[in-house]
Design brief:
Length: 845
């Protein structure tokens, strides 16, 4: 795949196989091609219906059996069988597939996959775009040897999942395909509104879904099993994976996709995963997106999010972490997993069972005990007090320390699984390990400010703010926007695919269909314009039908107070209006059917032909209809101008120009542009320019702020420099580097800078004194010499240089044997230190 590769130093070195590719027995990559057949044997079964090239004559009589360009009929087959030689036919693309490697492919003329074909699989055009010897040429069909299998054959699976990939810059497509692998499975999966048709295959090949092994009938469905009765076989039970942890700590949870009594075929998907819906890959959510600069909140690619998405759990995900503890056999004796932990209150062990292991379902937070464990300390000379305690309490008071497994700093969740491994049952435990306990803790994470999100076109950003729904911009019909993206993120990045996705997504949502637009062979701009026009027509008809319904209700002298909303009165009116026009009254409860039915009759009432605008259900969808699309756009623009009060008659050729003039005069955007008038959520006033609003699939990526945010006051220090450690894993501090020092120097913050470089860093004596002073509420003392300066002095001394420091008052600080070492005061705490100073007289003050 030329697109999917890492961004870092390994760019181009690590690759992925392209779609359909395989590795042959010699280790070379091969890809399939469809064979173009130019000659057929005279007695071939597939000769019927083929057109011949040149006249075919009888070798004995010389009579012409089939004329040039004529199609072979069943009668001619018997005569042709006597010809005795191969018959040249008009080149057609056969079902035969040959796998060729790169060097073998160079020898053949290969046609593009989306070259148009007739129903007989013959080429429509006389000149075809082909590849030959790594060059691109136009050739006659007679010269072509093979044809590509599919347009997306050149790219890998991830890149083939990006709609309108051909409109995206390669760098952004690379980011988009890589980021799809980082998408987090969400609680409510949703199939993309605009997809490429690869979603089913990607989900099937991922191994995340369960596929029926044989035909059968579903006899029972539970949360964890599906039972299928197969012919001539006992009932087969499929086990579902429930709340299992993936390597990325996300949750793998399968749910049934069938119901009891359903008849299934072999190969059908019977259970969905946490990242699929109806057997198709569903990683993100379809949200209403506006490209708008909003109060600086989306500066530098930041994303503004509606609070509604948080409330509805649209971007909520489940994460499972595992924590392990081992009980080893040490030199001082075996470690013990127990509930009896020294110096721990009853509250800390309330959720532990009698063995010291936490119960499933317990809510745990930072530093909570998951598994109680004690380790023997080294036996030393016992003091009289300890001997007394040992005599009173017996062996129980022996010297053990608490080495329990605790929740790490900043983590929380609910215990969902506990596994205990012992030496007796698991002989493959590491040497010296008697017992191992693994605890799984799950947590639900809602989307929050700081989380990373992305579209499929490399348009990534960090959530800067979760905005209340009432403050979000809204459309003329009151629909609030879900997500605001920065329009400056589009032109410079050259990923225009996201704009096309937004437009087609909007049309698909309003018309109630799902758009499938394959890579390199997808929807054209004119087709998207036509779909936007259809969406506007349906919306306009739906809006006017509500107004007509209220008018009809008054005529019927119906009690208006008993009606709840527009939808209820519209349903009553539609049954009356459409019921007598051949529509099915029962189906009028289906929103999409009702909307399209209303639009068809509304168009008919306005003098337009709805059959020229809306496709019939039984019509093949993949056919392109440019004339129908043009008619739809013209109809939409005419009705739009009428709605604005411009009823001037214009010819078909001048409709677009007239609509552009109206747009300039009125300021309202044409429906086919995909832009809409948006109103400010705070003031209710419309923005001065139309805004691109549509539906886009947005992914939540695995870079979550909860995993990265970190805070520390005191903690571990480096052994050599005595400076705080860095990083969240070490419970370290934030790095205060050279440039940060310059910032404080430039600002003149001398005392803050001195603190940063001494008591907050590696002045060991100073930080102990400072901590003590803060606790006691006393003024903080002057800092002393940092430990890292002492390390530098030691290095200089190793070079034979005697270094001394002279203070402000002229007092000398020596480093080495003469150095005055001061130790931090030792606090007298605990039972054992009680009697040390008893009876001694205090000296000094």
């Amino acid at each position: 795949c030329p697109i999917e590769t890492p961004e870092g130093p390994n760019i181009g070195l690590i690759g992925r196989l392209a779609s359909f590719a395989r590795v042959n027995e010699y280790g070379f990559i091969e890809t399939p091609y469809r064979k173009v057949v130019k000659v057929l044997p005279c007695d071939g079964a597939n000769l019927g219906g083929r057109a011949v090239r040149g006249n075919v004559t009888d070798p004995k009589s010389g009579n012409v059996i089939v004329k040039d360009g004529e199609r072979i009929t069943a009668k001619m087959l018997r005569s042709l069988a006597k010809v005795g030689s191969d018959i040249p036919v008009v080149p057609f693309v056969s079902e035969q597939v040959d796998y060729l490697s790169a060097d073998a492919e160079d020898k053949y003329v290969i046609a593009q996959a989306n070259a148009p074909l007739t129903d007989e699989h013959e080429f429509v055009r006389e000149r075809i775009s082909c590849r030959y010897h790594s060059g691109f040429v136009f050739q006659n069909p007679e010269v072509v040897d093979y044809m590509d299998v599919a347009p997306h054959q050149v790219v890998g699976i991830s890149a083939a999942l990006i709609p309108f990939l051909e409109h995206d810059d390669a760098n952004r497509a690379l980011m988009g395909s890589n980021m799809m692998a980082q998408a987090v499975p969400l609680v409510r999966p949703e199939i993309p509104m605009v997809s490429t048709g690869m979603e089913y295959n990607a989900a099937l090949d991922s191994g995340q879904v369960i596929v029926a092994i044989e035909d059968g009938e579903v006899v029972s469905v539970t949360g964890s099993t599906i039972s299928v009765k197969e012919k001539g076989h006992p009932t087969r039970v499929y086990q579902l994976r429930k709340y299992q942890r993936s390597n990325q700590s996300t949750c793998i949870d399968q749910r049934p996709a069938v119901v009891k009594g359903q008849v299934i075929k072999r190969g059908d998907i019977i259970a969905d995963s946490s990242s699929t819906e109806s057997g198709e890959l569903a990683l993100g959510q379809n949200v209403v997106v506006a490209f708008l600069s909003w109060e600086g909140g989306n500066f530098e690619d930041a994303i503004l999010l509606s609070e509604r998405l948080v409330q509805e759990d649209r971007f909520t995900s489940v994460h499972i972490e595992k924590y392990e503890v081992e009980a080893r056999d040490t030199k001082l004796g075996p470690e013990e997993i127990t509930r009896d932990i020294p110096n721990v209150g009853e509250d800390a062990i309330k959720d532990l069972d009698e063995n010291g292991i936490i119960r499933i379902g317990a809510e745990v937070g930072p530093n909570d005990i998951l598994v109680g464990k004690i380790t023997p300390k080294g036996e030393k000379e016992l003091t009289p007090e300890e001997r007394l305690l040992r005599a009173i309490f017996g062996e129980k008071s022996r010297d053990v320390k608490d080495t329990s497994l605790r929740m790490p700093h900043g983590e929380r969740g609910k215990v969902v699984d506990v596994k205990v491994f012992t030496r007796e049952e698991n002989s493959d435990l590491s040497a010296g390990v008697d017992m191992m306990v693994r605890v799984s803790v799950a947590q639900r994470r809602k989307i929050t400010a700081g989380d990373k999100m992305a579209g499929r076109h490399g348009n990534k950003g960090v959530v800067s703010k979760v905005v209340p729904v009432e403050d979000m911009p809204f459309l003329e019909d009151g629909t609030p926007v879900d997500l605001i993206l920065n329009p400056l993120g589009v032109p410079g990045r050259m990923n225009i695919g996201q704009v096309l996705e937004v437009h087609l997504g909007w049309a698909a949502k309003r018309l109630g269909f799902r758009a499938v637009t394959p890579v390199f062979d997808g929807a054209s701009e004119s087709e998207i314009e036509a779909e936007l026009a259809r969406a506007w027509l349906v919306d306009e008809a739906w809006k006017e039908s509500a107004a007509a319904a209220w008018k009809w209700l008054k005529e019927q002298e119906y009690d208006e107070n008993s009606i709840q909303d527009d939808d209820e009165v519209r349903n009553l009116y539609l049954e009356e209006w459409l019921g007598g026009r051949g529509y099915k009254p029962r189906r009028l409860n289906e929103v999409n059917y009702a909307r399209q039915s209303a639009a068809r009759e509304w168009l008919r009432d306005h003098g337009y032909d709805p059959d020229q605008i809306f496709a019939l259900d039984e019509e093949p969808v993949h056919r392109r209809h440019p004339e129908r699309d043009d008619y739809t756009v013209r109809t939409c623009l005419r009705l739009w101008m009428e709605a604005l009060g411009y009823a001037k008659k214009v010819s078909d050729e001048k409709v677009l120009n007239a609509a552009q003039e109206v747009m300039r005069e009125n300021g309202s955007p044409m429906p086919i542009l995909g832009k809409q008038t948006l109103r400010d959520g705070k003031t209710g006033l419309p923005y001065d320019q139309p805004v691109t609003v549509g539906v886009m699939t947005i992914l939540k990526l695995h870079h979550l702020v909860e995993d990265k945010v970190h805070a520390r006051s005191t903690g571990p220090y480096s052994l050599v420099t005595q400076q705080p450690l860095g990083g969240k894993a070490q419970f370290g501090g934030q790095r205060f580097g050279e440039m940060e020092v310059w910032a404080l120097e430039a600002y003149g913050a001398a005392y803050t800078l001195q603190e940063m470089l001494t008591v907050k860093s590696d002045d060991v004596q100073g930080r102990v004194n400072t901590y003590e002073a803060i606790v006691k509420g006393e003024p903080i003392e002057e800092p002393s010499i940092p430990a890292s300066f002492r390390v530098l002095v030691k290095e200089l001394q190793s070079l034979g240089l005697a270094v001394e420091a002279v203070g402000e008052g002229g007092d000398m600080v020596r480093f080495g044997k003469d150095e005055e070492k001061t130790h931090p005061p030792r606090m007298d705490t605990g039972l054992l230190g009680l009697g040390e100073n008893f009876g001694r007289k205090k000296t000094g003050s």
